[in-house]
Write a structure and sequence with these properties.
homotetramer, 9 helices, mainly alpha, 262 residues, Glycerol uptake facilitator protein
């Protein structure tokens, strides 16, 4: 919803109200998740080797740095910028989530109605599938999905996802729930929680942060890409939920802080 | 046009009106495209090897990372920052396009008059030629143009250009059409659509995004630099057109959204 | 304290006043220092070799660049972004320090009461310990602390810490003391003083900048991690103190500049 | 001068007026040039090899990338961020130049009085000398100055300095002369003109952009550091002058544009 469209106008015309309450937000979810997945899938390494295990053993400084650059700094900057860009690009159009975990948190905080939750997630998944599909067709090769190896520490990945995705949620709530929030670099900070989350997850094989975005490439790649895929969905959505409760309880503005209700 | 120059002043003096309606915008197009091309041409690699094909076969992680850094991250940051900088530098002087594809989209949205379109593109091309020429003289070597190899996937490059340049257009419209748009990092986000577009195009040989900027070096290099050069013009301008239609139809402010006109 | 919570509301309810004067600021210190340490500890190199000494002798350009990337640019960007993000994320919640040296300076300037200093530092240390502990559990390896080798130039490290941490303090005061300060990128500039400080300290083995953040990993690693650890505390806190005096004397707004009091 | 100090207060007290007209601006010039030089001198490579000539011949991609990272991206980011940070840090204290070329341009535009020009440049040089000196003492080695080799293309370096330093001037004027300028990322864009200037100058050995900042290390290193040092001063100051004339003539706000005076 935008300030530039008066509530008066919408009252006058039910068709217009429907347009701005359903069509625009859902199209925005679809398009932003499409772009987020498309950009990431196009920029990703062709071979995308997973070094993190070997790097714990013997590796030259140059190999180490090469991996850190290609599988750490680059995806972290690319995805972090992407999240921020989609938020500010659609700022006057819709509060875009393009992430089921974020939608979970906004349901908790009350900023997204329960009835819109499933449509939101469906549009996110459809957008991610299209983004990965077009990237696959353009590159002429399978888009590398987010692999979880059988011998990875699943428990560590799970908890890392809970914390890092939770922090994204925390920042999203800070800028949305508090109507007085006016920090110009706030949206960039939301994006950079993804930068921090990817770097934080790198050495243990975590850093998904958005299950819909990685469901697209997984669907196209199939097979091992589905290994423990549910861990990403559960961890990320649980992170969104826990940190939304944490924020709403203690840090929300005084008129909305749960702890002050009692 | 700037807020600091009252329309009253211009009405009073036809010469001054002409100055701010024609001379300043056209000089700004020339100067910004010059700077954009000059900065890019000076920063570009002396040898600029095209690795993308070989990298799909056997390559060490270090070679891979070296190429990603030099032909990916660096140009993406350099060009992305450049676009943002030119926008904010001229914010109170003129809505600078320095890109024919963007001028196409602004004609579609109605923010640039048809009569100004050709002069804009001419000034953009002249600026790019001067930028590449001075860079060539200072460096004492030919400036590497945007090559499209005969065995590249032209169709993939074409569609990638349509999408990535279209997204730049989308962001330019978001900040210009919606007069209530007030996100401080919006112009930086426009610039970073170029960052994303260059990384997105890297592995398939796309990432031109601005046909005028690359026409300059192509004119000086000649020969193979003109191979499929029209693909860049057609793809980028078509992207600007399609995404302008897309934005104006669904996402423009309620008073300008085309779909609400019916 | 936030603008969105009227002082009226707090007056009405002592319990609420206590909540916003003690509980929220202290929880914010704990949580921000936790996140700062967690992000840094998760992103840090698994082996984290200290090259700086060898690099002064014979080293290939690639080894040099690899080290510069992994132990210079990456931590500088990661930590710099982290500081900025925590500031803007908690902007409407609390003026977060997450650094004892910054708390020292704010006591000097009068923006933190003496009685709150010790609780602040305790919460900062507890947050850092938890952040390092969780990172250690998730990674399954000891988190590399900030080592000071016996043969390092301790005096140089000390003075470097004084200056670089002092500059962080200077920027923190600029944005907090001057109520008219309205630069949108000011908080990002505070964060980037850490970027500059880490790069400045790199070649001599300095760049701690925050003794609490590094106390966490040191506590878990033990042993040599405590070598000259007091230098970090003394240097950073002294830097905070000196630069706070410097700022308050000459550069504070006219109504608070100490030199104009006489 | 700051908005927070009313002109009334200063009128009332000649001593206070003197303090804010002379002491604060000059101390700010000294301190910012000190910091700019200190940060750059501390972060610079210990050995700082000049590869640009060899790189035009045979070099592996990795060597190329290593050099681009260490002598291109890193200094460009470091110095670019530094310039932006010093501007926003002192935004409410003084319009800091910390660069003689910028002071030249501000004299041209009329924003710095002739009588203050020499004191400004002196404070800038003193700050740079102290910054380089402290860095030298802390690192225990000579700080690498900005070398111009005898076989470099001096003419190309000269013109490159004119253009790249001129663009910094252009951006400084945009944000200072036009009182309605309100782009939040404007100061960051000024800083990033240095980013672009360093990358633009890299392959031909240019990229000084600030003669005072490099006079400090040159004074300490002596000898070959003074080769063609005057080219830096002449090129940079001429760039500041030419682009100030260019901006003031065509692009300054209507009430100050020189071309509209006739």
């Amino acid at each position: 919803m935008t300030d530039s469209k008066s509530s008066l106008d919408r009252k006058e015309c039910p068709r217009r109200a429907l347009f701005y309450s359903f069509f625009v937000p859902l199209l925005a979810e679809f398009f932003t998740t499409f772009l987020h997945t498309f950009w990431g899938s196009m920029a990703g390494s062709p071979s995308s080797p997973t070094y993190y295990k070997q790097l714990n053993t013997t590796v030259t400084p140059q190999e180490w740095a090469a991996d850190y650059l290609v599988s750490g700094l680059m995806p972290a900057l690319q995805a972090g910028f992407s999240v921020w860009m989609l938020i500010v690009g659609f700022f006057k159009i819709s509060v875009v989530h393009f992430n089921p975990a974020i939608s979970v948190g906004f349901v908790v905080s009350g900023d997204l109605s329960w009835t819109m939750f499933v449509p939101y997630v469906i549009m996110q998944c459809l957008g991610a599938i299209l983004g990965a599909f077009i990237a696959q067709e353009l590159r002429g090769e399978t888009i590398t999905p987010f692999y979880i190896n059988d011998d990875a520490n699943i428990v560590a990945i799970f908890f890392c996802e809970v914390i890092t995705t939770g922090v994204i949620m925390f920042y999203a709530l800070v800028t949305v729930v508090d109507k007085t929030y006016d920090q110009a670099t706030g949206p960039l900070a939301i994006g950079m929680t993804v930068f921090q989350g990817i770097l934080a997850g790198k050495w243990i094989g975590a850093g998904c942060l958005n299950p819909a975005r990685w469901m697209g490439p997984a669907l196209l790649a199939g097979g091992a890409a589905w290994n423990y895929h549910w861990v990403l969905w559960l961890g990320d959505c649980l992170g969104g939920l826990i940190f939304a409760v944490f924020y709403m309880t203690f840090f929300a503005p005084a008129d909305r802080a749960w702890i002050l209700k009692f």
